[in-house]
Specification:
heterodimer; A: mainly alpha; 0% strand; B: alpha/beta; four-stranded parallel sheet
Chain lengths: 64, 563
């Protein structure tokens, strides 16, 4: 039990340290900027979309 | 990539250049090194501009603010917000699995979601740069609240979005009301427990510009690509660009729209009516809103809106429900007045300029939600402490500024930069002062009258294009908030404000007021860049005020490619 607790504390300590490194060196920002955003932009640019300009424009009978 | 290339990239991304001409004795002063480590460097020695990676706005490393403030930022802002964002996604998405699945679907489907909101922690970074102590904490709680409410709104949209659920009209879809972002959430208090009102453009357009201004450019270009003119307000262009690009969630059977308190935006409503192709009620705010003749007309329009909702959704307006939420909203207004009192009369106000501006416009437009009360409780406790202990929250203040007219959405954090670089403390701004209206709940007539006023004091309308006497109330507010400088926003595509430019020029001269004109095109950073805005302020501070910058590394730097 004591060993397990020690392991958990060590694991939590290492995780906390790693998270601090991600925070301090702005690794989250760098990942999003250099990898995530270009990847998603390519996806959205290629995405097939409805042509909304084809929506019929008619007179409404009951205008509020 | 060659080894030297990797080294260069590493240097570019992580290594902060050593300061030239640094006193060698200082380098060996262990006491100072330890003090800087524990307390953070004094303002004048921070060299925040050295931390940026080229023009990206990223940091080689995040700022070291001293042990207590860095650990607060790491634990209570960065980590806390990442964890709570996941929790909010699950909570507001109707459970862990459903919430996460809908979030993933929305991220893959909508550009404004996947490209914008994942970068949210950098929005915090930009707004909170250089902040220490209570002002770091108070401002961060404001950001946290906006973050939470944004997640609530997009998760509500995704949960009922026909685009994400095979065109299916769910039960939730039938209970949602879509409305223009400038139709106040307070209009819907009488239906609050049975219907969900969700502004259509607030998250896909407005908040996205602040968080990551790359996204909005797609919508502006899309609007112009179908032949719509490029010279109206780019806010209107972006809002109908969402439809041209088919990037709006289909989450409600009916829409309440307005003229967005700017008559140039009427076209947005017309185009939305076309693209949405479903029942739509238009509730424009009048131009000369304080004319007594228009008051009754506005009240009848609100009642007609309620009737429209009753007919479309088959639910009745509930007076008791309205009273309950209007009274809760009044509590928010009362605390706002307390905050203004501290901001106006003391240096103990623990909120910086950008947090004040964004939080106030967000909650007063959005309407009563539990997160605003939770945040106000936290900020009240903090503010009581700073006032009691007389803590000067922004101690490097050289000038107390009021920002007037509509702000550049792509550079709302200019005031954080202006404080760090020049000691300009933007105490209050025009958008914060709108919606200054309690709603009486003693009788239906009083409530309707006040609600009508509230709706008419919408962003841009009350002071920007609501008649020259309101625009010129600047002088009164300047005095009330003890300001010695005006940052005068010049939205160059706003035809309303352009018309009164000369009057302000004359009045500034006549009253001998230090005023810096800041041109911008609301969400579009391509027209006037952030660097150009800084250049204008720099030039005024150097040539007219003859002052030296507090942090010289912030005077001239590139950030054109940043979020």
């Amino acid at each position: 039990m004591k060993k397990l607790l020690l392991k958990l504390i060590t694991f939590a300590g290492i995780l906390y340290g790693l998270l601090f490194l991600i925070f301090y060196f702005d690794l989250d920002g760098k990942l999003l900027y250099y990898i995530w955003e270009p990847m998603m932009t390519r996806r959205y640019d290629k995405m097939k979309r409805r042509d909304n300009t084809a929506t019929p424009y008619e007179m409404k009978e009951d205008v509020g | 990539m060659k080894i030297s290339g990797i080294k260069d990239k590493f240097k570019e991304l992580f290594v902060v250049e050593k300061e030239q001409n640094r006193n060698p004795e200082e380098k060996r002063n262990v006491k100072k090194i330890l003090r800087d480590f524990w307390c953070g460097k004094p303002h004048e020695e921070r060299r925040l501009g050295d931390l940026y990676v080229g023009d990206t706005g990223l940091y080689k490393h995040r700022e070291w603010r001293g042990v207590p403030d860095t650990m607060y930022y790491f634990n209570m802002i960065w980590l806390y917000n990442y964890i709570h964002m996941v929790m909010d996604i699950m909570k507001f998405g109707g459970g862990p699995v459903k919430g996460l699945v809908n979030f993933a679907k929305g991220t893959m489907r909508y550009r404004w979601m996947g490209q914008t909101y994942l970068t949210v922690m950098h929005w915090f970074d930009r707004g909170l740069e250089g902040m220490r102590g209570p002002v770091l904490r108070g401002s961060a709680w404001h950001y946290r609240a906006m973050c939470c409410e944004t997640i609530r709104q997009f998760q509500q949209m995704f949960a009922s979005d026909k685009n994400l659920h095979g065109g299916r009209e769910s039960e939730q879809w039938r209970h949602n009301i879509a409305h223009n972002e400038t139709v106040s959430g307070s209009i819907f208090y009488g239906f609050h427990d049975v219907l969900e009102d969700i502004p259509l453009e607030m998250i896909p357009y407005f908040v996205s510009c602040h968080v990551n201004n790359h996204t909005v450019l797609n919508y502006i270009d899309a609007a112009q690509s179908i032949g719509l003119p490029a010279d109206p307000c780019p806010m209107c262009q972006a809002e109908y660009g969402l439809f041209v690009l088919d990037d709006y969630p289909d989450y409600a059977p009916a829409m309440i729209t307005s003229n967005e308190a700017c008559d140039g935006s009427v076209a947005t409503s017309i185009l939305q009516d076309w693209f949405l192709n479903r029942p739509l009620f238009a509730m424009p705010q009048p131009m000369r809103y304080d004319d007594p003749l228009v008051q009754e007309h506005c009240q009848r329009e609100i009642e007609a809106c309620w009737k429209f909702i009753e007919e479309q959704y088959g639910v009745a307006f509930d007076w008791d429900m309205f009273v309950k939420y209007a009274e809760q909203q009044n509590q928010l207004t009362a605390f706002e007045h307390e905050k203004w009192d501290v901001a106006a009369n003391t240096p103990y106000y623990p909120i910086n300029g950008v947090a004040q501006a964004l939080y106030r416009i967000y909650y007063s437009q959005d309407g009563n939600r539990p997160i605003w009360h939770e945040t106000d409780d936290r900020v009240r406790r903090l503010m009581n402490k700073t006032v009691k202990n007389k803590i000067n929250c922004l101690p490097k203040t050289r000038h107390r500024a009021i920002a007037w007219s509509c702000a550049p959405l792509f550079y709302s954090n200019w005031c954080t930069w202006a404080y760090n670089c020049w000691g300009i403390n933007c105490v209050i701004n025009m958008d914060s002062l709108m919606f200054d209206q309690y709603i009486r709940t003693d009788t239906y007539e009083h409530a309707l009258e006040d609600l009508s006023w509230y709706n008419e004091k919408a962003p841009m309308r009350a002071m920007a294009v609501g008649g020259h006497e309101h625009i010129l109330s600047l002088w009164d507010y300047m005095e009330r908030f003890n300001c010695d400088m005006v940052i005068m926003y010049d939205q160059i595509q706003c035809k309303g404000m352009q018309g009164i430019h000369g009057v302000f020029e004359d009045e500034f001269r006549r009253r001998n007021i230090h005023a810096i004109w800041v041109p911008h095109a609301l969400p579009d950073k391509r027209t006037v860049s952030r660097k150009e805005i800084r250049g204008i302020i720099n030039e005024y501070m150097m040539t007219v005020m003859r002052e030296e910058p507090l942090d010289p590394t912030l005077v001239d730097f590139e950030d054109d490619a940043s979020w």
